[in-house]
């Protein structure tokens, strides 16, 4: 690591010059006032100025950037829209940020084969907007879909409200083109239902920018349902609401969306969007049915019966499309609404078996007392994917530290009940220590072996997502015998 500021400035100059030699004018940012907007992603508590930012226009220029970095040994942090919540696109002091913002063309949309070929910087929502005239849309719908890019979605295996029924990114992407650190273009996956060979597409999706740069994505489009309606059900306590989620799925129903918001979430969002939420409820569930009119009527009736049986109080069902969108608007705006009641929030992302929802929500309530911080729960309940928003004020001494400890304890609880430390936001820098809780040394060694196979010089987003065994040892989650770590050959950055 370069600590001498004059040496860092000289290195910046060297890298910027080399990139400027292979890119058109205006594609390299090096002055601090230009690179400042890239110092963090959606996890704004962690910041780092990059050495240089490169903004290539096309695949050939991406390859040129990679060649320069390979030659000079410069780490590369890929970046889409920077909405990631785990610090995946957070810069490295001696590395460049490679932004895909200018690779933003929809290359082809084929309504007959229900596919679209798009560049990585295309926004998630822009795909559905382009497909709408054909009665089609792209199903994975992160709440950030107005801004986040398909390249970022691929790297994070993003989900959203409708993923319970329609699947995550991995279920809706058919093929990706990838620029490798060696300077090749490889295509992973295919438009055919199955492809021979190892399924490297599945390995790549969710790899957080550590294996290659996505330069093109072929997505599956699905027909828009003829009809959709949503139930809003109120509950007197979160435990009953959590159990109701398990009952809906156990009844053999797969809703198009099944989301939960607790009282804190409802009270922060209702004055913001006026969605018509029940302010007296301890928790509300939003359960959507889609399909033909008859299918929707049938599913709404069955879900209503299950919810009533499970202890729901007031139940409202949308009767118009405008009302359906209004019910969802509160859920979709929950994160921004948190900013109205708290200077900072820390959004966690863990997944648990649905049957443990009530237990984990009770555990989180106890942690609120232990850490002296409020927590709003708004999440993809049908998937068991929690998003506790820990509310804190970074200006108060120790609150960030307490929020981090609170978050780590939530993730440890998720693992303890058989869940995982991330549902859809990735590991990045935020949850790297929690990876030591989730995985054994041999499993981490296998991850590094895959990383090394794609990226031998270890230049792509190093230090993210996979903890070194030294890091786990420092975190106290690895047994060190006679002062020696197992797998001493693994990287130590
Ligand atoms: C308000 C809000 C709501 C959100 N809601 C959801 C939600 O419902 N579901 C969900 O899953 N996520 C959600 N997110 C998280 C975030 O939007 C997603 O992770 C999204 O996929 C990130 O896309 P991005 O373009 O912003 O990527 P970035 O944040 O720029 O990057 C994310 C990761 O992808 C890598 N990357 C980006 N582009 C490429 C590329 N071309 N090639 C290789 N690697 C690349 C980066 O290195 C980084 O590791 C939310 C975020 C916010 C702020």
Automatic annotation (TrEMBL):
Cofactors that this protein relies on:
FAD
User: For the FAD-binding PCMH-type domain, which residue ranges apply?
Assistant: 46-224
Q: Which GO terms describe its molecular function?
A: FAD binding; oxidoreductase activity
* Family matches, as InterPro entries: FAD-bd_oxidored_4_C, FAD-bd_PCMH, FAD-bd_PCMH-like_sf, FAD-bd_PCMH_sub2, FAD-linked_Oxase-like_C, FAD-linked_OxidoTrans_Type4, Oxid_FAD_bind_N, Vanillyl_alc_oxidase_C-sub2
TM ranges are none
Cross-referenced Pfam families:
FAD-oxidase_C (PF02913), FAD_binding_4 (PF01565)
Q: Which UniProt keywords apply?
A: FAD, Flavoprotein, Oxidoreductase
Tell me yes or no: is Phosphoprotein among this UniProt entry's keywords. Answer: no
Q: Does the keyword Oxidoreductase apply?
A: yes
Q: Known PANTHER family for this protein?
A: GLYCOLATE OXIDASE SUBUNIT GLCD
Q: What is this protein called?
A: FAD-binding protein
The coding gene here is: glcD
């Amino acid at each position: 690591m370069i600590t001498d500021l004059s040496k860092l400035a000289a290195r910046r100059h060297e890298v910027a010059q080399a990139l400027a030699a292979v890119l058109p004018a205006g594609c390299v940012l090096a002055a601090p006032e230009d690179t400042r907007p890239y110092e963090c992603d959606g996890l704004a508590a962690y910041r780092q100025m990059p050495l240089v930012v490169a903004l290539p226009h096309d695949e050939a220029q991406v390859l040129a950037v990679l060649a320069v970095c390979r030659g000079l040994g410069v780490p590369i942090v890929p970046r889409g829209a920077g909405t990631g919540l785990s610090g995946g696109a957070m810069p490295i002091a001696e590395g460049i940020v490679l932004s895909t913002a200018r690779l933003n063309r929809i290359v082809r949309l084929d309504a007959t084969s229900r596919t679209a070929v798009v560049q990585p910087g295309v926004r998630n929502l822009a795909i559905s907007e382009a497909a709408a005239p054909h009665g089609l849309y792209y199903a994975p719908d992160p709440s950030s879909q107005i801004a986040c890019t398909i390249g970022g979605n691929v790297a994070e295996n993003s989900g959203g409200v409708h993923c319970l029924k329609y699947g995550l990114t991995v279920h809706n992407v058919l093929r990706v083109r990838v620029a490798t650190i060696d300077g090749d273009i490889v295509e992973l996956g295919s438009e055919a239902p199955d492809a021979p060979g190892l399924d490297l597409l599945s390995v790549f999706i969710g790899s957080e920018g550590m294996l290659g740069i996505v330069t093109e994505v072929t997505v599956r489009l699905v027909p828009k349902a003829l009809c959709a309606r949503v139930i809003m059900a109120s509950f007197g306590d979160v435990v009953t609401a959590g159990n109701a989620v398990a009952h809906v799925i156990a009844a053999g129903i797969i809703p198009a969306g099944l989301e939960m918001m607790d009282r804190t979430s409802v009270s922060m969002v209702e004055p913001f969007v006026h969605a018509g939420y029940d302010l007296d409820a301890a928790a509300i569930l939003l359960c959507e049915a889609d399909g033909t009119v008859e299918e929707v009527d049938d599913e709404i009736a069955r879900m209503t019966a299950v919810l009533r049986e499970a202890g729901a109080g007031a139940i409202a069902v949308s009767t118009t499309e405008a009302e359906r969108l209004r019910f969802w608007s509160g859920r979709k705006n929950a994160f921004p609404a948190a900013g109205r009641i708290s200077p900072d929030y820390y959004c966690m992302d863990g997944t648990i078996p649905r049957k443990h929802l009530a237990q984990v929500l009770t555990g989180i309530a106890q942690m609120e007392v232990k850490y002296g911080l409020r927590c709003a729960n708004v999440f993809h309940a049908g998937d068991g994917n929690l998003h506790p928003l820990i509310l804190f004020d970074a200006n108060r001494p120790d609150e960030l530290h307490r929020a981090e400890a609170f978050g780590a304890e939530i993730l440890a609880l998720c693992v303890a009940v058989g869940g995982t430390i991330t549902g859809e936001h990735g590991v990045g820098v935020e949850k790297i220590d929690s990876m030591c809780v989730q995985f054994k040394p041999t499993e981490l060694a296998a991850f590094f072996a895959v990383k090394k196979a794609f990226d031998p010089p270890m230049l792509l987003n190093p230090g993210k997502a996979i903890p070194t065994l030294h890091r786990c040892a420092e975190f106290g989650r690895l047994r060190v015998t006679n002062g020696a770590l197992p797998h001493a050959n693994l990287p130590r950055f």
